[in-house]
């Protein structure tokens, strides 16, 4: 009898704990109770280099130099310089390599180039901050670019390009940018084109650094380092950097006839005045033209036959909102809401198994091996879309209507409160947990100061995410996919080099023929051009 009472009491306790747990987990994730942001200090040196620190205590610190440079700013003559400069980051000193010296400090060194940023970053013991910044400074300002080291890195870069081109999941994100921003800014190749690798030499790399590594385009950031110490170190290593003098420009002879020059249109829309567009050869635009050129979204399509592949890979993207836009938080929530991933997952909490692309597509269509939402964000544009990997027997004409159905649901149907709250909680938790890493913390600080001029704290971000409602989701879906879904079923033209596409489509398919490309074009007409009512259940491949 006593044993029964004991078991009964234990069960009552467990029920009480379960009920309390459910009450706690059902509440929205409050930003005020999640994260207490450390103080952020920003100082601008006399030459306009910005120094930012975040005072988080710990035995290990991190610092980095972040430069407003990258492939979007490359002229045709300098195409690929960012990629090669990235590879040369640890091979630019006469004595030991940078990586060996960082290893001697017990730290880590990272150089990375993207479309809008080149960063040099080190993790180290807090007392080794002077040595770490000295190494980074020497790497940036005193690079030798020795011919033998360049030759070795050219071979490595060529191998890297071949490896990336062989993997659809790696090359298609690059191709979708080329399609979406044809021949401008964000459409510039992130990897050095193979035909350009042998043309990049030491003098060209030094010219690239001299042109873009200007003090007003640089941020020195540190986490776990006293602000006064980092300001002093930054002044020592970067305080003497000055803006390079502009090279004298010669007026091209074909512009001496003013009547002719007035008839020739400028190729660059971002010129400060119409007159200055005629002072530079369009084949080599000026620094000002490149620095202020805005991303021009063109859209388009590309089909790549790959008989060696086991699956057909497809990307569909629309232009989203830039990073400064207030709707960026709603669009980020939309990506988490769609979620997705591979058809096989170990499952478990936090794996996104309740996201829409799992519950509506992957769980219903075994022919789809992978389906996930993506969002590439930039200062003046972004790309939002879905990528899929299909069995070769499944044609894109069967899958595109299913993808369009997911977009149309966001346009015409409010997201249920519980589903929206789950997506917002996942987005906030990912932000908070990422900042547990010291390297992520300092990179976030450096990039934000470079882009925003200040640090937007996690608490402020969480508040803005909390304010996203069902009406905001539908409104932002209208901005991205077109009001009333017009972009889902209407294109201005289907063929022609000058057509303006509402979406960018990249397809890597298994069959080595044009039939599947033609089928995809038909699927664009049948799937994205035809409205799919949201009142219908998710489409089955067999019913399309």
Automatic annotation (TrEMBL):
One GO location term (cellular component): mitochondrion
Domain Peptidase M16 N-terminal: 50-194
GO biological-process terms attached to the record: protein processing involved in protein targeting to mitochondrion
SUPFAM superfamilies from the UniProt entry: LuxS/MPP-like metallohydrolase (SSF63411)
Gene Ontology molecular functions: metal ion binding
Cited InterPro entries: Metalloenz_LuxS/M16, MPP/UQCRC_Complex, Pept_M16_N, Peptidase_M16_C
Residue stretches making up the Peptidase M16 C-terminal domain: 205-427
Protein family according to the UniProt entry: Belongs to the peptidase M16 family.
The protein's role, per its UniProt record: Substrate recognition and binding subunit of the essential mitochondrial processing protease (MPP), which cleaves the mitochondrial sequence off newly imported precursors proteins.
UniProt name for this protein: Peptidase M16 inactive domain-containing protein
């Amino acid at each position: 009898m006593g044993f029964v009472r004991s078991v009964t009491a234990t069960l009552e306790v467990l029920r009480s704990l379960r009920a309390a747990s459910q009450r706690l987990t059902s509440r929205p994730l409050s930003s005020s109770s999640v994260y207490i942001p450390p103080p952020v200090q920003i100082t601008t040196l006399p030459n306009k280099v910005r120094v930012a620190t975040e005072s988080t205590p710990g035995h290990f610190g991190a610092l980095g130099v972040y430069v407003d440079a990258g492939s979007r700013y490359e002229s045709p003559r300098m195409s690929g310089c960012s990629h090669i400069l990235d590879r040369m980051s640890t091979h630019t000193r006469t004595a030991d390599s940078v990586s060996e010296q960082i290893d001697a400090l017990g730290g880590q060194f990272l150089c990375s180039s993207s479309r809008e940023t080149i960063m040099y970053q080190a993790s180290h013991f807090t007392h080794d901050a002077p040595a770490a910044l000295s190494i980074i400074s020497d790497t940036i300002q005193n690079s030798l670019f020795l011919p033998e080291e360049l030759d070795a890195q050219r071979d490595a870069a060529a191998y890297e390009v071949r490896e990336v081109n062989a993997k659809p999941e790696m090359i298609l994100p690059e191709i979708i940018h080329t399609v979406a921003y044809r021949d401008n800014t964000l459409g510039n190749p992130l990897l050095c084109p193979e035909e350009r690798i042998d043309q990049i030499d030491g003098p060209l790399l030094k010219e690239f650094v001299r042109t873009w590594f200007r003090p007003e385009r640089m941020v020195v950031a540190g986490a776990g380092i006293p602000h006064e110490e980092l300001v002093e170190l930054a002044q020592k290593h970067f305080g003497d950097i000055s803006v390079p003098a502009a090279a004298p420009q010669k007026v091209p002879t074909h512009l001496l006839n003013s009547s002719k020059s007035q008839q020739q249109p400028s190729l660059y829309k971002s010129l400060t005045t119409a007159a200055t567009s005629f002072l530079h050869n369009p084949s080599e635009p000026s620094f000002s033209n490149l620095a202020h050129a805005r991303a021009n979204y063109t859209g388009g399509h590309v089909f790549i036959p790959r008989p060696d592949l086991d699956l057909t890979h497809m990307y569909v993207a629309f232009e989203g909102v830039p990073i400064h836009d207030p709707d960026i938080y709603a669009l980020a929530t939309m990506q988490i809401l769609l979620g997705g991933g591979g058809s096989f997952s170990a499952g478990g909490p936090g794996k996104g198994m309740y996201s829409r692309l799992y519950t509506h597509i992957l769980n219903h269509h075994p022919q789809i091996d992978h389906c996930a939402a993506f969002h590439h964000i930039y200062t003046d544009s972004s790309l939002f879309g879905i990528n899929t990997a299909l069995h070769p027997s499944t044609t894109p004409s069967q899958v595109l209507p299913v993808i369009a159905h997911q977009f149309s649901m966001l346009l015409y149907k409010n997201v249920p409160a519980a589903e929206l709250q789950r997506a917002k909680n996942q987005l906030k938790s990912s932000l908070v947990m990422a900042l547990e890493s010291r390297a992520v913390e300092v990179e976030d600080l450096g990039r934000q100061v470079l882009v925003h001029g200040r640090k937007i704290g996690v608490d402020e971000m969480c508040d803005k995410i909390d304010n996203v409602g069902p009406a905001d989701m539908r409104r932002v879906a209208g901005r991205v996919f077109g009001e009333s879904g017009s972009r889902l079923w209407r294109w201005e033209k289907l063929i022609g080099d000058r057509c303006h596409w509402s979406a960018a489509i990249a397809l890597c398919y298994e069959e080595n023929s044009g039939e599947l490309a033609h089928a995809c074009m038909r699927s664009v007409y049948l799937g994205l051009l035809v409205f799919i009512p949201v009142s219908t259940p998710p489409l089955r491949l067999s019913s399309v």
